[in-house]
Every structure is written in C-alpha cells, then in structure tokens.
Amino acid sequence: MTSDGAFSYRSAPVNVAFDGEVGLPCRSLVRRQALGKTVFNSGNMFSRLGQLDKASLASKNQSYRISPAMHALNPSRNCVFELPRSKARAKFDAERRQELGQFLTPATIATFMASLFEAHPVEIRLLDAGAGNGALIAAFVKAMCGHRRGLKRMSVTAYELDEAIAPALERTLDSCRAECSRSGIDFSAELHNQDFIEAAVSLVRVDLFGVSKTPFNAAILNPPYRKINSDSHTRRLLREAGIETTNLYTGFLALAARLLSEDGEMVAICPRSFCNGPYFKPFREQFLDIMSLRRLHVFESRAAAFQHDDVLQENIIVHAVRSPQKPQSVVISTSSGETGSDVAERACPYSVVVSPRDPERFIHLVAAESDEVVRQKMTRFTTPLAKLGLEVSTGRVVDFRAKQFLVREARDDTAPLIYPCHFNGGFVYWPKPGGRKPNAIRDTERTQELLVPGAIYVLVKRFTSKEERRRVVACIYDPHRIRAERVGFENHLNYFHARRRGLPIDLAKGLAAFLNSTLVDVYFRQFNGHTQVNATDLRNMRYPTRAELDSLGRKIGDEFPGQAELDALLERELL
Ligand SMILES: C[S@@+](CC[C@H](N)C(=O)[O-])C[C@H]1O[C@@H](n2cnc3c(N)ncnc32)[C@H](O)[C@@H]1O
C-alpha cells in the first residue's frame, strides 16, 4: 500500500475463474430493443445468481480469513469441528457486511448498468466508490471493450474500505487489464483502501484558485446504505463539502456527482428513498441542480435486485449526466427483477418526473401507461391542504419516551392511546384488550402536550409492512364511538386536523375515502418507494375541493365500503 492508502497496482496473469457475482459476467445478457420495449434474455440468471451470491460470498469470506491449510480440509469430514466455528464466522461476516453496507451487485444488474453509459470518449476516467469485489468495474470494462468505439485509455479509481475484499477486487482489476489489453486499450487502476467520504471531501473542497477537482468522466456505483448521525465524523465531513444528508448512500452520490467533469456520466444503483421525504430534500436540490437525469430504472418487487441479502429498501438505477441542462424527457424503465424478466421503458417528460412547481423536488417514477393514467387523473385535484383548512402532523406520543405514562387498559385518569393496531375497516376500534400495545395514556398535567382534544380526525399509518397491499391506509377517529375528552396518537401515525381541532364528519369521511382509494395508493408509490408515509408526503399532495370531499363523505355510511366499491364511488363522484 502507498502512503496515501492506495494499493500499488501490479499486473498479474488472469488466473481467476469469476464466480457468479464477481467480475466479467460469465453468461451473456442479450438486450433487444423492440418497439420501445427493451427485452432482456437472461434465462434463469436472476435467481441463480441470487443463490450463487450467497454461497460464493460465504466461501470468499472464509478464504480471506482461513489459512490455505484449513482450505485443504474437507469441511464435510470435519463437520463436528467445523460447524460451531463457521456459524460464528457467518454471524461475524453478516454483521461486518451489514456495518459496511456490503451488498454486492449481481452480474446481470451490473451488466445492465454498464450498458447505460452513452458517451464514447477516447479516454475514460472511471470512479467506483465502494467497489466491493469490483463487479461494476468489470461489467463496465467489458461493455467498453465490446464497443470498440475509439476508446484508447481507461483509468479506474476504486475506493473500498474493507481490506478483506481487496484481494478479490485486485483480481478483478487484473482481469480488466487483460481484457483491455486484448482490445488494445491502455489500462491503469488505483485501488484506495480508504474511506471514500474522507478522500472525496478533500478533493471537492475548492483549491487555492477556487477550483475543485473533477477528475472523472464516468462513475459507476452501488454505494453503501447506512444512516449517519448528525454528530458523526462522516456528517461533519459532508457538511464541510456543503452536503447535508442523513444517509451514507446520498453522501456517496453527492460526492461522486461533484467529482464528475462537465458531461461526465453516472450510473448508480441505490435505494429510492431519496426520491421523496424531507430528509433528502437538500440532497435532491443539489443533485438535481448539477445533474441531468436521463434514466430511472425501477425494480417492481421490493428487494428483487438483492433478493439474497435481506435488502428491505426498494432499489432503483439512476443514470444521470453532469450538466445544468435538463432534458426534455427521462426514460423510466421497469423490470420485475424476477427470472428472465422483460424491461419495459417509456419516455416521461422531465416536468412530470420533477415538477417545476414542486418546492420539495420530489422525483416521480411514472413507469407504466397505467401509472400515467393515474397521474393524469390526479392532476384533476389541485386543492392544497391549507386551502381545505387542514394540517397534517405526526402523532405526538413516542411510546418508549412516555413509558411511565402508558397504561395497558383504560382507567378514569387516562385518555385513549391510538396505535395502528386500532385501525379496523376505516374506523378506529378501541380498546384492543389483551393486545401487545397499551390502550391508554395517563391524562395528567405532564401529558397535556402529548394529547389532543377528543374530536374527529383522519389518521394515516406512517409505516406499513412489506406484505401489506396498500401503502396509504387511512382511518377515522370518531369521539362518538370512543368517548373521551382527550386522545393520544402514537408516533407511528399521522393525523389530519383542522388547526389542532377536529374535522366535520363529512369532510373526514370524504378525506379518508379519497386517501384509501387505489388511485391515491398508486399515485403515492410513484414518488414514495419505501413503506413510510411521511406527513410531508401528505402535506405535499393535492386534494379534491372541500365541496367534493364533503359530497363524497356523505356517501359513506357507518362502515366503509370494500376496495372495489370505494374505487367505483370515487370514480363516479370525482372523476
Ligand atoms: C453496496 S456494496 C457495493 C459493492 C460493489 N460496488 C458492488 O456493486 O457489488 C458497498 C461497498 O462499499 C464499501 N464501503 C462501505 N463504506 C465505505 C466507505 N466509507 N468508503 C469506501 N467504501 C466503503 C463496502 O465495504 C462495500 O463493499
């Protein structure tokens, strides 16, 4: 290793047979363009690779830490001795990978990502931040060598914090060198076993002449995903570079964007949580100001891309070019991530993906024709929440902070405490005796600021489980059903109120019906890819007029209709 943490790179013969997730993909992926539809012919690759990943990763991790002599032992002959150790090893590896955000990209996805680069310069200076074993670099090199469009030189700069994976990365780089040499391309590589944030922040800080370094014209990355605390070293470093963000992956993306020269291209796979939500607003602003979105690829099923790795976030692939110029349209493509799945794509006007009227700069993923129909229908609703005289807030009772006031069953000195478990068919059903959650909170002087007056409110779950059919789930709290002077809403809920007071019942029913419609749910998924429904998301939406909501509400009786009936009612009344 050199003094600045970079590995001195040595050329070695290609002696590595790549495993499924590493390096130059062993099976070919055929991408056909037909009538605007991109078709992938990947056979059984997704699922096979999923399994391969797991197996090869386990064996690879062992090979870093276990002596060659141990390798010679056949584990099946030593299973009594081996089993407890490898369990501990597996646990350790899993924890280490989790800590590092180490989810390696399957070869099919890496190949797809590499195929998205459009420019064909004579010299490529590629950045991979958080390179892992080099799957993305390998796919990129293979794609570029395949084109043979005037490329003469390629330099690769890889940052990877995990020393244990460095040998695999070096082997990948060796193979890349060999591949380039066969194609007559000069190849060089630098491997920095170093924190990318630290390294990049010093690069992007403007120098004495007011110029920041932009050494790369291409970046391919699958950044680590991890929350970063506001008082952490990483957060301070990012702030030094003028980047305000709460997650490592957006820190990586922001820095990589800043390290690109004008017209430099970036392809990244990452969670789609940055597309909405208040925490990512500063990131969206900065990223969208300097980068021009070209494509957003959505995986239809959660975790499909990393099915083996327990990844709960939905992932997207972003292709963007460093340029202040915004394109006319952005390609939105989708694939299920399942075996042999097709990729469907459509061009969507930029102003639909990022509305010029939206101060939050949400990124809308209007992927299919049916999504477009939904988007069109939603444009009919233009009333902001404030015009309805309503506000939406997050439930004030954070239960673990208010433990001393919580009571299992209601008493004379308590107020109802409402959790999502009290939702039942559009209305709050309370109490839930024998449930896991406390049903009440003490109504004392010390809890007054946690409670709101007992009145009609519309509640929306903040979190839904992966399995739940709907993302937006609304329900009415009605004091005629639950007699109490005050009520507490737990922090897992959002609640709509009329400036801290309750809503008239017709308006509440109309609003809950609108929120519970399939239309709103599908629309919501266009900008929100995780299971969280933030108050900001609800605040940012547009609603039917007051008269329309009242009229819709009057059609709802003491029970909410089923989904199909509700959707038909909405269609009849509002569309
Ligand atoms: C999601 S993995 C992706 C690996 C590889 N690029 C791929 O696509 O297969 C992210 C990688 O970033 C590395 N990493 C985590 N924190 C890092 C940091 N601060 N600086 C550099 N690398 C880091 C992890 O060890 C991990 O290998």
Please give the CATH class of the largest domain: Alpha Beta
- Structural class by helix and strand composition: alpha+beta
Rg to the nearest angstrom? 27 Å
CATH architecture of the largest domain: 3-Layer(aba) Sandwich
Which geometry do the CA atoms define?
elongated
Please outline the major beta sheet: 12 strands, mixed
| Chain-averaged pLDDT | 81
The rounded distance between the terminal residues' Cα atoms is: 66 Å
CATH superfamily of the largest domain: Vaccinia Virus protein VP39
Number of discrete domains: 2
How helical, in percent, are the residues? 25-40%
Low-confidence stretches: 1-85, 308-312
What is the percentage of strand-forming residues? 15-25%
Count every helix, treating DSSP H or I runs of 4 or more residues as helices: 17
Lateral strand order in the biggest sheet: 1-6-5-4-7-8-10-9-11-12-3-2
What binds here, in terms of ligands, is: S-adenosylmethionine
Instruction: Kindly identify the CATH topology of the largest domain.
Output: Rossmann fold
- How many β-strand runs? 25
Structure description:
By secondary structure, this protein is α+β, with helices and mostly antiparallel strands. It folds into 2 domains: 107-181 and 192-367, Vaccinia Virus protein VP39 (Rossmann fold), CATH 3.40.50; 384-574, DNA methylase specificity domains (Adenine-n6-DNA-methyltransferase TaqI, Chain A, domain 2). 32% of the residues lie in helices and 22% in strands. The protein is built from 17 helices and 25 strands. The strands form 5 sheets. A 12-stranded mixed beta sheet has the order 1-6-5-4-7-8-10-9-11-12-3-2. Strand 2 (30-34) and strand 3 form a beta hairpin. The longest helix has 22 residues, at 79-100. The N and C termini lie far apart (66 Å). The site of S-adenosylmethionine has 21 residues, from helix 5 and helix 7. S-adenosylmethionine (SAM) is lined by residues 100-105, 130-132, 135-136, 159-162, 165, 195-197, 222, 224.
